[in-house]
Each structure stands twice: as C-alpha cells, then as structure tokens.
From TrEMBL:
Name under which the protein is recorded: Serine aminopeptidase S33 domain-containing protein
Pfam families: Hydrolase_4
Source organism (scientific name): Clitoria ternatea
Residue span, Serine aminopeptidase S33 domain: 115-355
Top-rank taxon, per record: Eukaryota
C-alpha cells in the first residue's frame, strides 16, 4: 500500500455551514427555476434551455436532448480518448416503487470476451452519464460490461430534483436494479463488482452491508463515509434543521456552496463540468441533507462489517470528502483483500478533474485491480 502524507485541513462530504436558527428559517425558500446559466459561448436559446426549472424529469430529459450535439464537441480527455466500438444502450424501467428509472450500459466489442459486470453508483447531484461516459467506455474496452442508473430525483430518472426522502430507499433502489442486471444472460455467471463515487461510495458500502455475499468486489472513489466533526452544524442548528425537515422536507434550506474548485484541479475541466446541465447544483433540500448526514453516520458505525474485496481510491488534497476517512475504512474493514491508493496532490474528482496523466493512472488502477480478481475466477 502506498503511504502518503495527508492534508491537515479537510472538509466534509456535505458542505454544512453554521447559520443561526433565525437565518435558517428566513431562508426556507424553494427555488422555482434553475439559476441563469453561466456557461460561456452558448447561444441565447441554449442559455434559456439550461436555465429552466429542472424539478421534474421531463424537463431534464428535454435539456439533455438539446445539449446532445454540444456535448459531442467538448474538449476533455475523457471524451477525446474514448475507445471506439463500444456498444451502448439506454432505457427506462419502472421500479417496485413505481418510479421510472433511467438506465445505461456500455459493452465491449462483440469479439471481446466479457470478464465481469461492473455496476456504477454516481455522486450527489451528479448523473450516470456525461463524465462517466468516458470512464465507462475505457473500462468496457478492457472487457467489462458496465451498467449505471440515475437515482430517483437525479439525472433523467423520475422524482423531484435533488430530493432524497430516504437514503435507505435509495440503497434499496440500487440493490433492486443491479440484482436484475446481474441476472442478465451476458453476465449471469460472471463476477460482479460495484463502483461508487463520493456519495455513491456510501451507497455501494450500504449495498454490500445489506447483501454481503452479492458482490465479488467493491471499488470506492473518494467515498463519502464520514463527515468531519468540526464541519457539522452546531447542536442547536442541527436540532432546528431536524425539526424543519419533518415539516418542510423539500425546502432548499442548506446554503449552497460551489464545490467545483474543490473537485476539479484543472480550470479547463472545471469549465467543461458546467455542461452537465442536468446535474443538481441548487442549495441542498432539507430532508436530503439530513438523510446524507444520517447515512454517513450509519456507514461509519459499520465499517468493520465491510467484508468484500475492497479497492479505495482517494486524492490526498481532497477537501470535499476526507482521505483520512478512507484510511480509517481501510484499517477497519474486515476484508481480507483490500487496497488503498492515495494520489498525491489530487482533488475530489480523480476520475475526471485531474491532469490527464492522473486520470489515466486512476482508470488503469481500477482496470488492473479488476483484471487481477477476474483472472482467478
């Protein structure tokens, strides 16, 4: 295992601030429209489209369609170097809770033997498309069937944008969907892995804890598995927020903080991130914030129960999720096969926001780890 010096100052995976209870009450306003687009070089028509209310899935789907050609022209390592010949499919399916879920797959070329299934869990506010398209294509080109879905309320799936009424339900949605994926004929008898990024790391961990024998390995990228104590709201504010979450759960009460500078080390890649126009970047909804806090506390209390083969990847300079928490997870997990890799100087977005050579190295580390565990099957 690579041992590196960790930064002394880190921020929590959830950008809490410490407003007074009075300020919290006065800011209980749910925005009715997305803020005006600040993307440079867009036509006025596309700016208007990007600025519309994205609360519900039909509008998010229209916006994504309107930007499809623009996305194909973006200047980013992931898009420019994506392997050709990858077979992709997109579809919608209704889950057991009656929600229409957006799903996507990336398959290697027909003449490439599939080694395993890899199921992806995206981060808070993000989507299973856009940047992950490039990541998925690279992994698929190495012989893996890659699957992903947008959570209810995120991306192209149904649900109020950015709203997580129950983190446990969200985990169950993931388990339900990927259980069906793992029964598909093309991957039914193959190893199965789950990859979680940031908040998706907490989801992947909880999925493994609920079904410990269902995965041949868990890959965590800058996982949200602990919130630093110093970043939590004061006890008084937390009490107010908890009470308010019961009466106005959908209100966007947590002050917004732009985390793009903490996620993308390279300014050029930070600008490209703005084109993921269906991501959620408004102030966090009250119930969502409380659910994220509860989920990280639950995960932290069960780290010793994590038993699957484990790969943890984290940027040493990450100030969104704490790399020390990944070190703690590595030490506490009961997994006999576990690996921790820390990337010196790297920020939160190690899959997409670093210099090209670092992104390439992170992807290669994931693929190499998968290859080693599939070769013995």
């Amino acid at each position: 295992m690579e041992t590196l010096r960790f930064p002394s100052h880190t921020l929590s995976p959830f950008p809490f601030t410490h407003p007074s209870p009075k300020h919290t009450l006065n800011t209980a306003v749910s925005l009715s429209a997305k803020k005006k687009s600040t993307i440079e070089g867009l036509s006025e028509e596309l700016k208007a489209i990007a600025s519309q209310n994205l609360d519900f899935a039909p509008s998010r789907r229209r916006v994504r369609e309107a930007f499809s050609e623009v996305h194909q022209q973006l200047d980013h390592f992931l898009f420019k170097t994506a392997p050709a010949g990858i077979r992709t499919a997109e579809w919608y399916e209704r889950n057991s809770r009656g929600l229409e879920i957006f799903c996507k797959s990336w398959m290697p070329e027909p003449n490439v033997l599939i080694k395993a299934a890899l199921c992806f869990c995206h981060g808070y506010g993000s989507t299973c498309t856009f940047f992950f398209e490039g990541v998925a294509k690279r992994i698929a080109a190495s012989g893996y069937a890659v699957y992903a879905m947008d959570y209810p309320g995120f991306g192209l799936s149904e649900g109020l944008h950015g709203y997580i009424p129950s983190f446990e339900d969200l985990v169950d949605d993931i388990i339900e969907h990927y259980r069906k994926i793992n029964e598909r004929p093309e991957v039914r008898d193959l190893p199965r892995f789950i990859l979680g990024q940031s908040m998706g790391g907490a989801i992947a961990l909880k999925a493994q804890l609920k079904e410990p024998n269902n995965w041949d390995g868990v890959i965590l990228v800058a996982p949200m598995c602990k919130i630093s104590d110093e970043m939590l709201p004061t006890a008084a504010v937390l009490k107010v927020l908890n009470l308010l979450s019961k009466v106005m759960p959908k209100a966007k009460l947590f002050p917004n903080r732009d985390l793009s500078e903490l996620t993308f080390r390279e300014p050029g890649k930070r600008k490209v991130a703005g084109y993921n126009v269906i991501s959620y970047d408004d102030p966090t909804r009250l119930k969502t914030g409380m659910e994220l806090l509860s989920a990280t506390q639950d995960v932290e209390s069960q780290l010793q129960k994590v038993s699957a083969p484990l790969l943890i990847l984290h940027g040493a300079a990450d100030k969104v999720t704490d790399p020390l928490a990944s070190q703690f997870l590595y030490e506490k997990a009961s997994s006999k096969d576990k690996t921790l890799k820390i990337y010196e100087g790297s920020y939160h977005g190690i899959l997409e926001g670093e210099p090209d050579d670092t992104i390439f190295a992170v992807h290669n580390d994931i693929i190499s780890w998968l290859d080693c565990r599939c070769s013995v099957k």
